[in-house]
Amino acid sequence: MPVEFNHTIVLTPDREKSARFVADVLGLRLGPPAGMFLPVTTANGVTLDFVTVDIDIPVQHYAFLVGEEEFDAILARLVAARVPVQADPHGRHPRRLNRDDGGRGVYFRDPAGHGLEILTRPYGTDPDSPLNGVTEEIPGAV
Questions:
Q1: Among the listed residues 45, 63, 43, the one whose alpha carbon sits nearest the alpha carbon of residue 107
Q2: CB 83 within 8 A of CB 114
Q3: Band of pLDDT at residue 33, cut at 50, 70 and 90
Q4: pTM for this one?
């Protein structure tokens, strides 16, 4: 059997708040609790298992590959919820999206402070794209 990524544990001060945020923004279903975990499952079957912990949590990064229509829907939900978005992980291009590899990408934070990203093309799929390094304003973004 080939190696497949199955699940990861997402540490948060409030599993309900973080899991619901991710599910709502990405348009996914919040699964029933599984013991101490609250799962959110992606279309390819990978589960994000949110767990409440009472420790200092290092910031993690989670990237989601989405289609163009899904990108538009997710971005609209982020803008409507007034979630700050940016074209890069370092915040140098707030209220903008990136066009790297000829696709679109945007970064934002979940309630626990984890860095989330949605992108329509995997990194490196078009290294010669004239859109690499280009950013675009997101109307209504904060």
A1: 63
A2: no
A3: very high
A4: 0.95
